[in-house]
């Protein structure tokens, strides 16, 4: 089953958007398998965004991500990586379509409320790698009844 790492960024937590973001993923039919509220240390923020290290906005990005608590989550379900990216919307909230999280809830690229893994490989790395060791984010196994079909267990999946 596909899995993705979703992180409500400090602005999302401060603005009280955690429930809204979780709700959108739940209603789509994905399954929450790990959740942790924690203060992201600088080292983990730098590791998480290491591909962007050369960008001029990198120091500001690290300050932003470490400015307050974040909510780290693992979600699973068929096609969850690409689908969550679609639900989140474009990086620049002003370009994100209405109906997406960023399109509905944000206005600035530098305060775009949520992160979603950009590939299945990065999803696995972000959930099982550094996030696990630094934050203690740990997956819980359980069966979520109404999602059986979405998770690929249904006969017509
Ligand atoms: P994430 O889900 O957070 O990884 O966003 P993304 O995949 O849509 O974008 P990307 O990985 O390219 O950039 C990571 C984050 O860096 C973005 O979500 C923004 O918060 C920030 N960022 C990217 N581009 C810019 C920029 O041009 N200016 C500023 N201030 N921040 C940026
Ligand atoms: Mg990204």
TrEMBL record:
Q: Which molecular function terms from Gene Ontology are attached?
A: ATP binding; nucleoside diphosphate kinase activity
Residues in the active site?
A: 115
- Could you say which cofactors this protein requires? Mg(2+)
What is this enzyme's catalytic activity, as reactions?
Answer: a 2'-deoxyribonucleoside 5'-diphosphate + ATP = a 2'-deoxyribonucleoside 5'-triphosphate + ADP; a ribonucleoside 5'-diphosphate + ATP = a ribonucleoside 5'-triphosphate + ADP
Q: Which residues form the Nucleoside diphosphate kinase-like domain?
A: 1-141
Which EC number(s) does the record attach to this protein? 2.7.4.6
Keyword match DNA repair: no
One of this protein's GO BP terms? response to hydrogen peroxide
Residues that coordinate or bind ATP: 9, 57, 85, 91, 102, 112
Identify the keywords attached in UniProt to this record, alphabetized: ATP-binding, Kinase, Nucleotide-binding, Transferase
Q: Which family does it belong to?
A: Belongs to the NDK family.
Report what the protein is called: Nucleoside diphosphate kinase
Question: To which species is this protein native?
Answer: Salix brachista
Q: Which residues of the full protein are shown?
A: 86 to 242 of 242
């Amino acid at each position: 089953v596909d899995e993705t790492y979703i992180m409500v960024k400090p602005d999302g937590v401060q603005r009280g958007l955690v429930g809204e973001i979780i709700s959108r993923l739940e209603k789509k039919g994905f399954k929450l398998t790990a959740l942790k509220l924690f203060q992201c240390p600088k080292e983990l923020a730098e590791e998480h965004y290491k591909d962007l290290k050369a960008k001029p906005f990198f120091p500001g990005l690290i300050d932003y991500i470490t400015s307050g608590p974040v909510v780290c989550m693992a979600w699973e379900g068929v096609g969850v990586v690409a689908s969550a990216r679609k639900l989140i919307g474009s990086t620049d909230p002003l370009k994100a379509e209405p109906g997406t999280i960023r399109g509905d809830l944000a206005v600035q690229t530098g305060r775009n409320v949520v992160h979603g893994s950009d590939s299945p490989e990065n999803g696995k790395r972000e959930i099982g790698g550094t996030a696990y060791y630094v934050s203690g984010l740990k997956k819980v196994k359980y069966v979520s009844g109404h999602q059986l079909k979405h998770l690929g267990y249904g006969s017509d999946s």
